[in-house]
Amino acid sequence: MAELSERFAELMARLAKSDAELFRTLGEQNASVRQLVDDLTVAAAPTADGSTESSQAPALAAQTLLPPAECTLAALKTRFRRIADAQAWAEERLGPAPKKPTWAVLEHTFRSGAWPVAPSKRSASSTGQQAAQLEQRLLERLEQLEQRLTARLDGLEQLLRSRLTGP
User: Fold this and answer.
1) Predicted pLDDT at 42
2) Which residue(s) pair with 52 in the sheet?
């Protein structure tokens, strides 16, 4: 029994170490993602009157899906013939459409290289919304991590019980 207890303690120590490594890696990845986002946003630029004007426009603009000459409504209809074909082609490159698009929406999407964003119905600040969304995503990820760790611990518990009852 003492040997089993020692093995269990050793296993728990290894699990704690791997968890610490996992959280450290996640922290490093989050820091690098934040750095990438900061690098892609334009820094505050001084204006003529000496004040600074902050712009949150991305430094890298989205690319069009097709050459500009092929992004006109007539060219899109000629190339794809059906709206479903154009939508499927765009979804292969951009992911699912926010809702069933019209030809006008598809024309805008092909020109801008991104699906249009639906306006927010709330009047809260976008910074507050983004922070709340990030917090919600973080909580969801933590819950998923907790579920995975709980499943691992349950598996370890079953393994220990089988070793105790086995020959």
Assistant:
1) 46
2) 46
